[in-house]
Amino acid sequence: MLAYLLRRLFAAAVMLAVIILVVFSIFFLVPKWAGVDIATSFVGKQADPAAVEAVRTKLGLSDPIFIQVWHFFKGIFVGRTYAAGGDVTHCSAPCFGYSFRSEQAVWPVLTDRFPVTLGLALGAAVLWLVFGVAAGVLSALKRGSMWDRSAMVIALGGVSLPIYFTGLLSLAIFSYGLGWIDGKYVPLSQSVGGYLGGMILPWVTLAFLYAAMYARITRATMLEILGEDYIRTARAKGLKEQVVIGKHAMRSTMTPILTMLGMDLGALIGGAILTETTFSLPGLGQAVLTAIKNQDLPIILGVTLITSLAVLIANLVVDVLYAVIDPRVRLA
Amino acid sequence: MTELSKTGAAVGEPTSASPAPTSFLEVRDLKVHFPTDDGLVKSVDGLSFKLEKGKTLGIVGESGSGKSVTSLGIMGLHTAGQYGKRKAQISGEIWLDGTELLTADPDEVRKLRGRNMAMIFQDPLSALHPYYTIGQQIVEAYRIHHDVDKKTARRRAVEMLDRVGIPQPDKRVDSYPHEFSGGMRQRAMIAMSLVNNPELLIADEPTTALDVTVQAQILDLIRDLQKEFGSAVIIITHDLGVVAELADDILVMYGGRCVERGPAEKVFYEPRHPYTWGLLGSMPRLDREQQERLIPVKGSPPSLINVPSGCAFNPRCPYADIPKDNVTRTVRPELTEVGSQHWAACHMTQEQRERIWTEEIAPKL
Amino acid sequence: MSIPAQSEGPLVTKADAAPGDTLLKVTGLQKHFPIKKGLLQRQVGAVHAVDGIDFEVKAGETLGVVGESGCGKSTMGRLITRLLEPTGGKVEFEGKDITHLGVSGMRPLRRDVQMIFQDPYSSLNPRHTIGTIVGAPFRLQGVEPEGGIKKEVQRLLSVVGLNPEHYNRYPHEFSGGQRQRIGIARALALNPKLVVADEPVSALDVSIQAQVVNLLDDLQQELGLTYVIIAHDLSVVRHVSDRIAVMYLGKIVELADRESLYRAPMHPYTKALMSAVPIPDPRRKNAKSERILLKGDVPSPISPPSGCRFHTRCWKATEICKTTEPILVELRTGQQVACHHPENFEDQAPQDTVLLTVAKEAAELVADEVLAESAETSAAVAAEVAEASSEAAAVSDETSDSTGSTEAEAGAQESTDGQN
């Protein structure tokens, strides 16, 4: 078990290093080859050549590529110092550079926005797991019934309706129409009630989409598991049906659900762009959207790395849970 | 009542509404039908038999003869797994030690499962939950029916594993099914089914998935355990060799019905149904001189949705034209007594069958 | 081009190989499947599925191959039909070396060597009609039989006892036995010389098994086919075979004609295997004394036991069995055996009498362990054996003659030296 964990951790670390390398190359080398000068774009189009040159020296853009990569790595793990003549700026670890537009350090921008996205993703995940899995199990047990059919029709709707439709619809009804919910984002540190009030619609909207997918996969998996020989064995032992379903069948059903959860959570943490935009949540998705519009490379780079890290961590957690659930995985 | 018992005597089979039997297990006119899109599948269609403690009944038949469904019916597992509308239809009577199982409260039947009646399945790898250790699964089986703490139950599990011949049981109790070999898994499965000392053990093709040398070990084990625990055993198989090794009585099923039933010796040496002859003739035998040719049964087993009218075996039976008036294709033959404790369902007369067997079939085997 | 023999009504034997000539010759055949692990996919071991076997198949005969699961019999079948490429050794078909022929090199041979598979449900494409399935070999080989493919396919269907009218039906409309007949019709399409059948009847019901066995029998007589029939069922193999090879853990332990093998098996494993078959005769029910009950399971083919591979389960095993691998030699006419202490014959190593009881117990325990631990097995057994042999007072000279490199042997030899 420990060996399995260490192997997974090592693989994740290697993966992360590779991701940093690839992302760095895309964002710093591709513009160079494409003939776009980063220093110029940093200063602005009508900048005087001396200022551009100063920026170039300060950012180390004229250094050989491997030196640049090394500085970038170093910046992330121990911090780095930008210097051009007397102009010295120290950027402490983890340093992702400075925004081209606001000239703010990237890291604080990320740490500001990360909790919003994380809160959105985790809150929605809890909702969709509870409702999606429950609906799926019930549908499986009452296969062919009215409940099963209507649940699956609703699920089909959930899967096919885009977030900006359901999101705007819920905003129109509950916020503008009925006026039940204010709908403005309030940080959790300021007011718990305000936070919940601001998050409830995004959570429900996002969870609706995912719950639909989870209900379908749970139903299909559960039906398959119920046909397994070991479920018959569990009944032959004289176990109550609740235990047969709740313990023996559920444990097997969890495996594919966990796999999906790992990928979905990772992707959502990288930015639920649609949801955040629809509900004006100041999360990573919004940040990256703005950065793309402004060609703000350091921000895009930072968000991309955070996203990759989130996916890696989520998958690592899933792998560990996998091994906890399925003993056969531990051998692999 | 008198009339009922009269018919009962005539066919040697007590019919419904008769009083609780004296036998340990008695099945009367059991029918298990499954509704499907294509029609009603009559998996078991009127089956009756008795079994005493300490005895072994072998149920023999080909795939789709209804032998496995019979065992699920006795265990009450035919409906437990069915959700939604398409539930199995079951009728008849199953008396286990004075309790009628089909009319009993389902929760009462559940409590009997695993404690009074237990089951071993064909493929021990798929029949054991892959995510729980052997020990956890045996402990669970024990604690459903015994109010003991986990430690005591674990001791019992180790004891059972030791009894079924698993080396280092105190260590292997914490292994997962995938860490066991096929033979060891079946031993563990047997340990699990016997953990509550059941009075009835149903083994559904217990050795079909195993190699022949391991099969010999498992058959040996089942025989020894039965002697030790004195339980009634039903062994379901397609292999006449396996029933000959274990069974006291043999029941041959075809198309959801019993075509012949009797003591093992009688069924092997004086079979009175053409299907039984077919089974015996189809098998190459190691214990005899080399046969020139096997004597197969022509055609294939019937679909249980569309069982042939009359005798279900008539399209495959070489002697279907011997009885007069096309009776084999119109009238279902009932089981009639052909010897002491020996019944067969065939329209041919006793004499005709005896002659065919002794003159035509037996010499070729 | 057309093959005249096929379009004729009566079936005629292909004349190239006279009965009795060697059709297939296998020498030192090996197949190891590598086990890879870790990021770099380092090879950490190999499954010794087939580990050096020799045999010949003569034209017109049936060679039966029996053994338990994991003995390598199916791999062997796929090697001789070249569905797999051997790791070592040589396969010769009609004198031609086909061991390492590529796909195109094998194409002409595919006509002469055909295979019938175990599972009639998964070996037929459910989306193709029977006509397409049985006619596929003609299209693949570019052969145009006289009268057209359709006519020829219908003739083949009637040969295997199916209704030629069913040409346009799909596999799911047929029962298991009928599907196996379709598989046989497909195998026969190009009038092959050698048919390799891997468990042809084990998925079928008893009454259907006999039909297919009889069909194979008839076809052999009519078409002069040569069969290699692989099966686990000893009674079926005896019924269909002229000669029988018994395999255990990748090796042939006994190869003999049917009568000798079943009358007087020489290898203890053959004897145990035969005695384990349940006899359909209730009067023999209590004849338990005749049965040899092997203990434990077949050891892992990843690290097969040293010396004779059967020694861990053999009741006759002595020290030499642990150290020296017995060679397959012809002890009686037509009966080859690989054993130091054969049954029904004089002992090949009579001096060697120290029984490996302790080693056997140990091996049995370890044999069941999980695969991951199997690498340590030999060491563990070796240690036990070393102890066992030092305790044993007399170790014969035979031991020191044997070649080997395990610690156990070193230990054993040391103790012998001490005694001497």
From TrEMBL, chain A:
Keyword Lipoprotein found: no
Residue intervals of the ABC transmembrane type-1 domain: 114-322
This protein's UniProt keywords: Cell membrane, Membrane, Transmembrane, Transmembrane helix, Transport
Subcellular location: Cell membrane
Keyword Ligase tagged: no
Principal localisation: membrane
Name listed for the protein in its UniProt record: ABC transporter permease
Protein source organism: Streptomyces coacervatus
Taxonomic lineage: Bacteria, Bacillati, Actinomycetota, Actinomycetes, Kitasatosporales
TrEMBL record, chain B:
CDD domains (UniProt xref): ABC_NikE_OppD_transporters (cd03257)
Localisation: Cell membrane
UniProt membrane topology term: Peripheral membrane protein
Record-linked SUPFAM superfamilies: P-loop containing nucleoside triphosphate hydrolases (SSF52540)
GO molecular function: ATP binding
Keyword Ligase: no
Region annotation Disordered: where it falls in the sequence: 1-22
Main location: membrane
Coiled-coil region(s): none
Gene3D superfamilies tied to this protein: P-loop containing nucleotide triphosphate hydrolases
Keyword field contains Membrane: yes
Domain ABC transporter residue range list: 27-280
A UniProt-annotated Pfam family: oligo_HPY
Keywords: ATP-binding, Cell membrane, Membrane, Nucleotide-binding, Transport
Family matches, as SMART domains: AAA (SM00382)
Family, as annotated: Belongs to the ABC transporter superfamily.
Protein name according to UniProt: ABC transporter ATP-binding protein
Organism: Streptomyces coacervatus
